[in-house]
Write a structure and sequence with these properties.
alpha/beta, TIM Barrel, single chain, 223 residues, 10 helices
């Protein structure tokens, strides 16, 4: 996979507690230079990223219920509304993992639907990605989470926050792809640090990658 093609699959990401204005400005500049698909940043910097990236072709993505997912559904919906109002194009929300593991599918479905409904109310619907945190789930729970994300009207299912006990694996990506079918998004995130790993995720079925090591990944790609 060539550099330009791979770059258009990457959400160039900076989400740690140390992320500040200067880091976000640099991230956006890198995204424009390499034409990454999006930047993925903390909610407080959505307005700044929107200002920098306007007319660049690079999308602004932020997170909701991050990183643990144990926010009330109303809080997740509020976070989503504020992100939309400040100019986000995409939202990655973390589900309530204990609810999924307990088989409380109604709760998980309702919280995703709450965020989805908010993101439909703007001038244009925002892309919604649902983070499952696969390293905490059995295969059966991963399948259930992916089915719920699709049923709730999300656009993507995503493997990991990058802050859990493990990141993306080709096996999880393949399982999610098999579950949601060919026309739904699968985002691999967490632990993707080089070109070879990125390609394995794409080959397994990912059509978006979340990475903080995006420049290192591209460095290994052919021109």
């Amino acid at each position: 996979m060539r550099k330009a093609e791979l770059a258009r699959l990457i959400d160039h990401t900076a989400l740690g507690p140390e992320v500040n204005r200067a880091r976000v400005e640099k991230l956006c500049q890198e995204a424009v230079r390499h034409q990454f698909y999006a930047v993925c940043i903390p909610p407080t910097f959505v307005g700044l990223a929107r200002q920098i990236l306007r007319d660049s072709g690079v999308k602004v993505c932020t997170v909701v219920g991050f990183p643990h997912g144990q926010h009330r559904p109303e809080v997740k919906a509020l976070e989503a509304r504020l992100a939309m109002e400040e100019g986000a194009d995409e939202v990655d929300m973390v589900i309530h993992v204990p609810a999924l593991k307990a088989g409380d599918y109604a709760h998980v479905l309702a919280e995703i639907q709450a965020v989805r409904e908010v993101l439909r109310k703007g001038p244009r619907p925002l892309v919604l990605k649902v983070i499952l945190e696969c390293a905490l789930l059995t295969d059966e729970e991963k399948v259930a989470g992916a089915i719920l994300a699709k049923a709730a009207g999300a656009d993507f299912v995503k493997t990991s926050t990058g802050f859990g006990p493990g990141g993306a694996t080709p096996e999880d990506v393949a399982l999610l792809r098999k579950t949601v079918g060919p026309d739904f998004g699968v985002k691999a995130a967490g632990g993707i640090r080089d070109y070879e790993t990125a390609v394995r995720m794409v080959q397994a079925g990912a059509n978006r990658l979340g990475a903080s090591r995006s420049l290192e990944i591209l460095a290994g790609a052919p021109d």
